[in-house]
Structure formats: structure tokens, C-alpha cells
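Ticket #4471: structure output looks truncated?

Reporter: J.K.
Steps to reproduce: submitted the chain below (320 residues) through the standard prediction queue, then opened the result file.
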Amino acid sequence: MARFLGEEDIARLLTMPLALEAVEQAMAELARGEATNVPRERLRSTQTTMHLMQGLVPSHGAMGYKVYTVNQGVVRFLLHLYDSASGRLLGVLQARLLGATRTGAASGVATRCLAREDASTLGLFGSGRQAAAQVEAVCRVRPIALVKVFARDRDRLASFCQAQSERLGIEVRAATSARETVEGSDIVSTITNTEQPLFEGAWLGEGTHVNAAGSNMLSRRELDETALTRCDLIVTDSREVARRECGDLLPLIEKGRIGWGQVAELGDVLIGRTPGRANDRQITCFESHGLAVQDVALGARLLELAGLQGIGSELPQAME
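Returned output as attached by the reporter:
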């Protein structure tokens, strides 16, 4: 029987180690041509935008799509998964927590590939619903001792820092400025919806790794030209997707400051087709957009766990 997993069910099953493993496997399989990702499509009415993403991960016997709508700041997410052999519906999952966690996990996988081994300080821009997963994922793959967080909403920022410090057992404190957030940080992560660069690229220190996870629309931009042109290695989850929606990269591409040949894919780094960090002095960057293959791989694992543990509810047979 097909299974429905709500957000509470997902919270019982989902862990960051599981997400890191699922995302890394999906990205490696995509690079080897074993998985298929269809770039996001957007449909707009006068009040609502609907986003559709599709993916196929044969190693999990799953294919599916994630659809989410945005209306006046309210976002609703659903992931539909099907058996890739029979076409039978496997399940429907509410995907707010799933999506935030896999976005964090993608940054974690990129950090494990690209950041210095001794990176211990994280500078984070953003304290919204996806920020916690960004912090946890980086802390899972590097020995982070200090997290500096900068965000516009100072009240929410204070609560966020306290919650993450207690949850992770490390110092998480509010930064007083964008410059303080960047300077002295071994890793800088951004998870915002800003339309203007968050900091000056000149502030990045030698050997820094940057995770830019918010610029998945042409109207959004988190990094300035200096930051990107200073990077020795720029990696994205998918060049095909980046060509359609990366607000950070496209202005530089159009100006001829960088070319697509200078932008690697994370999966290629994972399987050794493209070299990663060459030394501790290089500045590296991961431009994350979020791929359906990541959702499908993680969702399939959650459905498997849910079946073993009897979590979730059965959908009507007519839906199969």
C-alpha cells in the first residue's frame, strides 16, 4: 500500500547523517549518468507561484516529483514518489522539513569535499526555517567550534543562536555586522532570499569555503562579483539548473568574467572526475539550487524506514 508521511512522521524518521548519505549518493549517481534530474519549472498566477521538480533514482527504484506553492509568504510542499519499475505510487510526503534538511545536507556534502580539513569557524547569513540544517550539516563534516550568525531580524536571530547552541553543544552567537560574520570564518554559508549581495568579497580570507544556498532565482543574489572572481574553484549541483536560475553566476557569465567551463559539478568532484581543493590557500564556492534527485533519494529512504517502523498512514488503494 502507498503511504502518506506528514511533517511529524518525517521528524521522527529524518536525521542529518541519513540526509548526507542520500544526497551524496544521488549526486554521484547523477554524475555517472545513473540518475536523472529535470530542472525546476515555475507556473505563476496573479497570487500564487507553483514550482515543479522531477527526478529518477533507479538505485532506490524510485521516481517522482516535488511540487510546492508560494502564496503571500506561505509555502506548501508535497513529494510524490512512484516505483520506477511498475509505476505504482509508493507514497506522498509533506516535504517542508525534508527539503530544508536535504538543502543543508547538500552544503554539508560540498563542505566535506571542498573545505579545509581543519575548518573550525562558520559564518552564517540567515536565521530562517532552513538555517538550522545548514549549521548542523557543516558541523557534521567539520570540527566547528564557533558559529557566527548575521540576520536582519535580531529577535529571531537571538532565539536561533540560543537554540542551535543548545542543540549542537557549540558556541553559536549573533554577529554584529556582515563583515564580522565573514572575517575570520573558515566557512561562510548563506541561506537567504536577498536580491543584493550580503557581503564584500574582499573580506573573504585565504582558504575560505563558501556555501551559497539561496540564489535559486534570477532575482536573488547573495554573492558579489569580487567574491566569485576570487574563487579558485566554483562548484554547483547542476550546471543545467544554474544556467536557468543562478542569480549569483549569470550576471558574471553574461559579462564574460567567468565561463561555464570554470564551473564544476558537485557529483563530478565526488566521483573524482573533477579535482576538488588543491591546497589550503584556495577559496572555493558551492552554488546550491536544490535538485529533485536529492528529494527522491531521501524520500525513498524515509518511506522504507516508515514501512519498517509502521510510521505514517496508508493511502486509499484507489490512489495506486
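Triage note (M.O.): checked the attachment and the full C-alpha cell line is present. The chain has two domains: 3-99+292-319, 106-287.
Status: closed, working as intended.
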